[in-house]
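Possible race condition, two jobs.
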Amino acid sequence: MKRILFIAGIALTQLVSAQNPLVTHIYTADPTARVFDGKLYVYPSGDTIAPKGREKEFQRFCMPGYNIFSLENGATWKDHGRVLDQNEVPWGKKDSYGMWAPDCIKKGDKYYYYYPAEPKDGSAFRRIGVGVSNSPTGPFKWEKNYIKGVSGIDPGLLVDDNGKAYLYFGGGQELYVAPLKDNMKEISAEPIKIQGLPAGYKEGSFAFKRDSIFYFTFAHVFPEEGYTIGYATSKSPMGPFEYRGKIMDNISNGTNHHSVVEYKGQWILFYHWWDISGFNKMRSIRADYMAFKDDGSIKKVVPTMRGIGTPTIGDTIQVDRYNEIDGAKTAFVSGNEPIGWMVCDAKNGSSVRFNRVDFGNGSAKKMQARVASGQRVGSYEVRLDNAKGKKVAEFAIDYTGGWNNWTTVETDITDKPEGVHDIIVIFKSDNGCEKTVNLNWLLIK
């Protein structure tokens, strides 16, 4: 058993790793997920704290602009930076903090990014603009004017198999759809109200097609429950639709805006929650797997901490986003660590299980752990698939300067594990030791 101490932590800049929530270095909401040329991208909005002195203006949400993320490796999200700031909207009101849910769609060899903003001409609560790029991450050339004949929030795009494109939008009691011209910058007919939806407040339009059926999904408020994610189906992209029920129940009523995508043969629901901030106006994007029944209906998705993805060599494994835990707890990470959670209060025999880790072709040689400890008694080991499975790593516990003083340690990986396995971290110490080590994450390399 080897132990190497790294005094400096790993800087999280443009590459951020997480399970649920997916991104923790900034607040993100309203995720639209897309797969372009086999790669997964997410186009969210962004929450921020209201400027000092303007708190009363932004009692709902304060949203200054958009970043773009892509999935790198098995579970690492790359932040491509700010793609559009509120004060860069050619037709937008300055410092309005009203950049709500966007979308991006590919048609031909071009990428079209749609977004709502408050217009400086005061003609509507929100108008919808568009930009075009040769790349899914931009830069985009933004149209000088908003799309004529469209007012509302939450643009959602669908390009059918025949190349025809549709823009879904709206917020309130009604949602709308309009066909787009081939240039993707103008509507080709007047918007129509989407028929067949239940009464109540609705927003967050997102449509997709599966097995010749068009699914129209939307955020829907039930008076007795709050925001849920609902869906309806049709044989036509413009309806009428038949309401089929809920995809996800309300979670803490911080709105629940979403998207649905198929990636590598699995369907995924992207959504947001505010558990990391403790404030329902500061949200973070999340994702969980989604499944269909034989009749085409959608099985209700229950939010998980584990989320999606299969961490592999070079990815951070957030073991606090566990599948199972026994004898230990989780809490917000302490000290000056990036925002997130840790496994804590682990005593002798405590364990935590994290499913689906890809060790690749057996080339992994080292495993790192981000830890803090106020004592130096015991160890923790990593086993495959079950508590009695093959041991592939073991770390001795050392004093790091206290329970809030974090250090990265490294040890050898033994037996050259290959392929995808569940991992179980088992904590070992003297019986009189009620706290062994605080564990933030693992990483194989």
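Job #2 (started ~2 s after job #1):
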Amino acid sequence: MAFRGFCDGTHRRDFLKAGSLGLLGLSLPAYLRYAAAAAAAGRTVDKSAILIYLPGGQTHMDTWDLKPDAPEEYRGEFKPIKTNVPGIEICEHLPRLAQNADKFAIVRSVSHNLAAHAPGQMFLRTGNRPLPSLQFPGYGSVVTKEYAAPPGLPPYVSLPISSTNGGAETAGYLGVAYNPFTVTDDPNKPDFSVRALALPQGLSLERISSRKSLLEGLDTAFRTVEVKSQDLAGMDRFYQQAFEILNSPKARNAFDISQEPDAVRERYGRHSFGQACLLARRLIEAGVRFVSIDYGSWDTHRNNFEILKTDKLPKLDQGVASLLEDLSARGLLERTAILMTGEFGRTPKVNRNAGRDHWARAMSIVLAGAGIKGGQVIGKTNDKGEEPADNPQTPENVAASFYQALDIDPHKEYYTPTGRPIQIVRDGTPIKELFA
């Protein structure tokens, strides 16, 4: 996967890369230690979530909120098409999503004022306006804290696809126990694998088993000693969990996308994003609680229309439509909340480079599943797509809605490491129309 920066030079920070994890190299057992600590506080629930994040900021004017009657310099090149819901139209380059419009809701009136990538991403990935004194947890970290995953599976998996996210994907004040299990390999590669689930070079299961037995003996010997050093983290049951993952087919099968028929893989699209959507479906089906997919970059300051129609929109259409169709057909959509967003919209007026620049005063967000009422548009922008003209909404309201769909109280209080109480979403109120 090719990772690149945005116009402002922002680059992704990888907090926990599954590609670098290896059994008895401490990282995987340490991860399992953190995950188990998270699960200990979790509840049993039959809901999961998928975040499809569009780094760079997707243009609302050329996707979900076209303005065919606006002046030419605003409306751009694309035309709207009808969907399977009377009265709702979206971009002509999203034909499959148009036929699945009954499964999702579009909120066209989201607005804020953070038109720079890093703060905008922190805002839209957490539902909280950034503060210099506190780093808020992302959606996946909150879900990880609230809900335990089945044994042998990570609760939160991140799939960054040819994009950056400015380091916004973090557990914030919740701590590293709630960071994602990040898979950096490209699921579209013929040899795609999750190296954390593979045997380290030169080691066999028999050899690892011998080491595990030795560690268990040492664990018994030191059982009365208070061991705090992370260097001795393996002398407990988390090495057993790591060993069980290598022995058990559960996680391995969930990540083994090669088990899917060729026709299914083609339907999702033989590209990184399409295969990430397919992998997300497999992970949710296996019991993973939260999957995030980063698909960028939508930072189209120039050649906006060419980039969208030849690359971004066809892939988005293919991957997301297939995901919605499969989740629905398998009975998973009713318990899987989906949120698709970037950090802001793009300027309604096309610039001299045939591009659109940063614009936070108006953006569109898509939600689906887990009790969210599909087949509707909430709010609208003015005739040039510049700002909300009806039913304005905030990123906090979107976050509160996403959590409500997951049966998580957005106003529940957590505590920072210093003992400060703070609500999951500080200022948001669920959008009532989503649940009408």
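The domain at 18-435 is CATH 3.40.720 (Alkaline Phosphatase, subunit A).
Logs attached separately.
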